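Session log. Operator J.P. requested a structure for one protein chain; no other inputs attached. Running the standard single-chain path with token output.
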Amino acid sequence: MTVKEQISYTIQTIITGYTPEKIIVFGSFATDNANENSDLDLLIIKKTSDPFYHRLRQVRKLFNKQLLPLDLFVYSPEEFEENKNKMNHIANIAMKQGVVAYEK
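Structure written below.
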């Protein structure tokens, strides 16, 4: 499986198994600077009141074996809106340099 196919598989698995509102790819894969040591940075927006760590666990459970290393951040729409303009916050970084891979 190519890296592009792995990314598509990862995103589709999250869409099917977690039903997010939006998925943003950011970091080296979004800026075309990825190399063999890069991880896939994903910011996932989902309507939820679950604790942050529980959200991450729910997404990670979708993968028995993940080919690409993942760096996941899951925010509610309200949390994303609250933080997207805060300098150096992950939501701000993802919004500025990220690519929307999925939106409901």
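Operator note: The first strand starts at residue 22 and ends at 26.
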